[in-house]
Amino acid sequence: MFEKIKLPNKSMKNGWKSQYFRSNFILILLVVSIPGIVSGIGLYWFGVGQVEEELTESHEKQIKDKAENIDDQLEYLEVSLSYWAFDPRFNYSLVELDFIKEFQETRDISKKLMIIQGSNPLIEKVELYLNTDKPILLNPNYSLIEDQMKQAFYQSILTNNKTVSWNKFTNQGNEDNSEKLALSHNIPGVSRPPFGSIIITIDNTKLIQLMETLIPYNEGATFLLNENEEVLISSTTNKNDAFISQVKEMTINQEEATGSFSFDWEQETYSVSYGTMHRIRDNWTYVSVAPISSITSPIVFISKLILVISFSGLILGFIMSWFASTRIYTPIRKLLHVFVEDEQSLPFQNNKDEFEIIKENWTKVTNESQKLQKQLSAQIPQLKQSFLLQLRKGYLYNYSELELRSRMQSYGWQLNHQQFLLVDVQLTGVFESEKVLKDNDESLVTFTLENILEEYAKDYFEQFTVVNYHDLSVGLLIVTPQESKLKMRLNHFAEGATSIINRILELKVTVTISESIDKVKQIPHLFEKVSYGKRYRTFENKNQIINLTEWNGEDNDHKFFYPFETEKEIIQAIRRGKVLESEQLIRQFINELKETDIHEINIQPGIIQLFSMIQHEIIHSGIHPNELFEGKNMIEELSDIRELEWIVKWMVEKVVTPYVELLEGRMDVEMKRLVEHVVAYIDQHYMLDTSLEECAEMVNTNPYTLSKSFKKVLNINFIDYLTNVRIDKAKELLLNTNMKIADISESVGYRHSYFNRIFKKQVGVPPSQYRKMESSG
């Protein structure tokens, strides 16, 4: 082994002095930063102009769409008013009507006016003016117009020579005398001389809110002009009358009826979009004004963002490049710290290549390693364990006895006049221990057990090999001459090893001692016999010694008992998703097994049978075990557990809980599917005599499950849902047909007498009264 000199940390950590470090840093920085900078500059110069044009086009299209929406709503209001004006209720009979005596008719007209007022959110007020001897106004309450100015106001509407007209005026009837936009229609709607007028006053606030949709941003203005170039209504955001007048004048001077232009105002450039709305006997012009900065603000933000990201990427690239270069150079620096013999050999001091230094010294290390490898090859305990593993697994079955002995002797065993026996040491009480297996590290505990036995066995046997099973158990293959005191020595060894393990690991031990054999080919059978024999341990947390030379098989005469009733209760609890109840029943199941026999060989089959029944239930529910257990060999895992309480925990955590959680998740989907199927059936066959039981049978489930599913999915009971569907269908027939109520009750699945009672209970009034109320409304 070569000699190394410890160097000062300051010299080793100063990697920037190394040419290798600097070249890697610069290369990584270029690779990281240049693509981002080039991409950022390209996006900034070539993408900004295109996106700005698309934003402007999008803005104009948005204004046009919003204007069409406003036009449609105003047109709908005009058509609706014409429809109402032609209503037979507003004919010449109103002139001769005594509104005081015939108060019922007056109430119906007022109700009609209220319906008209509530039919459109733009309507603030609806009035009916009648030009009789004593002018009458319903708004919607009945009143006589005695004020001369007020009478002249309504008379001017009636005499403007237009059947339908839009007007902007100061309504003297308003408390604030504010200007209002109104739509009026003379009655009757036919071409006969009018005797009155229906006047709809527009809600300025609602119309302004509608107009503000033409301003997609927080700044700007919008307004409407009539044919006389008068401003009907305007919505402004921090803009004065001079601004509106300027925009109005420039819009009027435009040659096209629809289009856009820009103008400057107070060091700000604005985009103006305008167009035409065709009203009855009139053409309006809408105008939308928005600052260019608001339209292009996204692209300005994106441009700035691109630059910020590009420069941020450059800074981040510098930091990451430094970090990456340091990480890349760290192992080289560490190798140099190991290999460099003196400080003058450092590459940044004499310009030598680091990898040349590493290569030279690695050659020295390799030579030394080969020498050590030869020394290690003389240590063959691992080879012995490997040989026994192959022998135990049957890989050497075709070898003859002579060949097997020859191989064993080559590994250092002395086999002349020797016999073989096996001692198995199994740890128990792990589940109840608080000191051991805090992280469930079985391998670490088993390794500790292996070391204890290896040290302790040296005082009793000259030749032995420890085999680590890695499952909290260790085998000890002993090669010893035949002697009369061997049995006593084995017992002393078992008792002493048990005491030491109890003290060090604080665990209980089951020691199984095999019979002795004299042939190597019988060693695999020795492992099998010990594996079978140790299953005759009692399923209790205590030290036990099983000597197979003294065992005569009397335990086979014990009668085996299996608690079938408890098994059924466990399956039922799992079906209901009761995890805690299942845990208690599994513990009860094991206790009942222990009542007749506490040996593992009799208890283990019962536990495996219980797992098989649970797995059968899992398969019966439509879940594949591989889906639940992820392909694990669960029976093998269960067979390796040597403690009853650990078995209970394993059953609950590895089997019951995952199954219940998976089943509950699938049940929610199945419930929804069942309810959707039944809802579709009810919507199509509500008129039939339908019951919960019939629907449950139709979807292959029971009434309880279907009722529970309805309540969980729709938050309503089955019968309530069916009743709601039938009543809704009955309402449609009452309003839209002239069918008799008795026929309607049969068409929705009810008897006549019961239909009246259930309809009144659900709606609050009988069917006949409901039809009358809705018809009059």
The shape is elongated
Q: Classify the beta-strand content into a percent band.
A: 5-15%
Question: Which structural category fits the helices and strands?
Answer: alpha+beta
The CATH homologous superfamily of the largest domain is named Reverse transcriptase/Diguanylate cyclase domain
Extended strand count: 16
* Mean pLDDT over the full residue set: 78
Placed side by side, the strands forming the largest sheet appear as 3-2-1-6-5-4
Number of domains: 4
Largest sheet: 6 strands, antiparallel
Q: What name does the CATH topology of the largest domain carry?
A: Alpha-Beta Plaits
CATH architecture grouping of the largest domain: 2-Layer Sandwich
Under CATH at level 1, the class of the largest domain stands as: Alpha Beta
Task: Tell me the span between the first and last alpha carbons.
Answer: 108 Å
Poorly predicted runs: 1-13
Level of helix content? 55-70%
**Total number of helices:** 28
C-alpha Rg (nearest Å) = 49 Å
Protein name: AraC family transcriptional regulator
Transmembrane segments: 21-46, 301-324
InterPro entries: Homeodomain-like_sf (IPR009057), HTH_AraC (IPR018060), HTH_AraC-typ_CS (IPR018062)
Domain HTH araC/xylS-type: 676-773
